[in-house]
From TrEMBL, chain A:
The chain crosses the membrane at residues 91-111, 117-137, 158-179, 185-205, 212-232, 238-259. Signal peptide: none annotated. The lineage of its organism: Bacteria, Bacillati, Actinomycetota, Actinomycetes, Micromonosporales. Residues 9-37 form the Putative zinc-finger domain. This is Putative zinc-finger domain-containing protein. Pfam families: zf-HC2. It comes from the Bacteria. Keywords: Membrane, Transcription, Transcription regulation, Transmembrane, Transmembrane helix.
Automatic annotation (TrEMBL), chain B:
Pfam families: Sigma70_r2 (PF04542), Sigma70_r4_2 (PF08281). One of its GO terms (biological process) is DNA-templated transcription initiation. This is RNA polymerase sigma24 factor. NCBIfam families: sigma70-ECF. Residues 134-185 form the RNA polymerase sigma factor 70 region 4 type domain. It comes from Actinoplanes cyaneus. It comes from the Bacteria. Residues 38-100 form the RNA polymerase sigma-70 region domain.
Length: 272, 190
């Protein structure tokens, strides 16, 4: 190197007092000359802070493949992490899985086809409701005390968890239903009631505590649908007929509207 | 994660060269990264500060640079050239992506170390001699927008496209400016 960056030059460079051409010359020289690089004064405190930050960065675990895929699909990654970090939720998922699959097996192999189908159709819509009811709140979530202290607690978290569990339990229910004997669309007849019951539970939870709302709707469903199914003679109980299905859709839309309007009042069942 | 066992003679010491340190970082030695940080963070900070007035953005870019080194050190190919040039290329690209906000991280992710030119460009060689001769004068007389393009491409090792992003102009404009700047320099030096 024909010359080196001396102290006054370096100082002028750092303070931005140099001609553009000399800035460029110092730039080029710094890149090529280790001696001048190490002559750049290091603010020890800044250096420490910067290094701590780097350490934090390299110690942050990289997101897993599922999280990366979901983020690429446009879902917020921090929400997913929140959902995945909830053991209680995972248990309710597992319970839903086992229950749904058991229903499928029982319905397929026990009794005559009509009875088993009817009971599957009556019971299946309850699973998402159960999942929603156990997704949040003191009796089911051992971390609830801690969760409730965080800013993410409350209606938003209830809805996120509810969406996650309803999605999973509906998907599993579909798998089980596809394995049932009988015409294919019978097996799908429980989907709209299930949707109505889940959304209805959340809508009702804007007035009552979440578990109470879930219990009320579930009991009502079992009494009405079960009663009608036992009393009726038709192959497909009237509660699953076309007219009833459109009624469920309408009611679900209504409940969704109520939920949207009153979502801030969603009561997760915690003591206030 | 990178818990590869390293033989004692590979352990980084204060006397290791940058290339050896990079190799140690690739083997997962945090201590080697700390030494690289101690050696390079100060001048990277000073040089980045000439390109960005916001010290927070500069600090973030410096931190990102060493995170990138931690992840990508294994991609460094020893070409006999000073690793500082390679590190600088990462740093200035991190600065660009920091300037463009978290939604544009892809630009930083596109930093594939190893794509740097092997030999310094003629402009770079000339710039090293700017203190002697009339190049300094010619550069000073260059209109600022033309000089900025020369600085981004010749000095910072950015592609014309990245230079355009840094300067906030369309790529075609940056290309034209670069050509005009070279023509003007030729004129001024003739």
């Amino acid at each position: 190197m024909p010359w080196h960056v001396d102290e006054p030059l370096l100082e002028a460079y750092q303070q931005g007092r140099l001609d553009p051409s000399r800035v460029m010359a110092v730039d080029a020289h710094l890149q090529a000359c280790p001696a001048c690089r190490s002559a750049v004064p290091a603010d020890a405190e800044w250096l420490d802070r910067s290094w701590e930050a780097v350490l934090d960065l390299i110690r942050t675990p990289a997101p897993g493949p599922v999280e990366r895929a979901a983020e690429r699909a446009g879902l917020p990654g921090h929400r997913l992490r929140l959902l995945a970090a909830t053991p209680a939720l995972r248990w309710s998922w597992l319970a839903a899985t086992v229950a749904v699959l058991t229903f499928g097996v029982v319905a397929a192999y026990a009794g005559d086809a009509r009875t088993s189908l009817t009971w599957f159709l009556v019971a299946a819509p309850l699973l998402p409701v159960l999942a929603v009811a156990t997704a949040y709140g003191p009796p089911f979530d051992p971390m609830h005390e801690i969760t409730s202290m965080t800013p993410s607690a409350g209606p938003a978290l209830v809805l996120w968890r509810a969406t996650a569990v309803v999605g999973v339990s509906m998907a599993l229910g579909l798998v089980a239903a596809a394995l049932l004997p009988g015409p294919g669309w019978y097996a799908a007849a429980w989907l709209l009631p299930a949707f109505l019951l889940s959304v209805g539970t959340l809508a009702l939870a804007t007035v009552l505590p979440l578990p109470v709302a879930a219990g009320l709707l579930a009991t009502g469903w079992v009494i009405v649908a079960g009663g009608v199914s036992i009393a009726g003679e038709a192959d497909l109980p009237v509660v699953f007929g076309p007219a009833a299905q459109s009624g469920y859709l309408l009611a679900a839309a209504l409940a969704a509207g109520v939920l949207t309007r009153r979502r801030r009042r969603l009561d997760p069942g915690e003591s206030r | 994660m990178r818990g590869k066992r390293t033989r004692p003679e590979e352990a980084a010491t204060a006397r290791s060269s940058d290339t050896e340190l990079l190799r140690a970082v690739a083997a997962g030695q945090v201590e080697a990264l700390r030494m690289l940080h101690g050696r390079h963070a100060p001048w990277l900070r000073a040089r980045l500060a000439r390109r960005c007035a916001d010290p927070d953005v500069v600090d973030a870019a410096v931190q990102d640079t060493f995170l990138a080194l931690w992840k990508d050190a294994h991609r460094y190919r020893d070409t006999g050239r000073d690793p500082a040039a390679w590190i600088w290329t990462i740093a200035v690209r991190r600065l660009i992506s920091a300037l463009r906000g978290p939604g544009h991280r892809w630009l930083g992710a596109a930093t594939t170390p190893g794509d740097e030119r092997v030999s310094p460009s003629p402009e770079e060689l000339v710039l090293l001699r700017v203190e002697h001769g009339d190049l300094g004068d010619a550069l000073n007389r260059l209109p600022p927008e033309l000089r900025a393009v020369i600085q981004a491409t010749a000095l910072d090792g950015l592609t014309v496209r990245e230079a355009a992003r840094l300067l906030g102009v369309p790529e075609g404009t940056a290309k034209t400016r670069l050509m005009r700047a070279r023509a003007r320099l030729r004129e001024l030096l003739a």
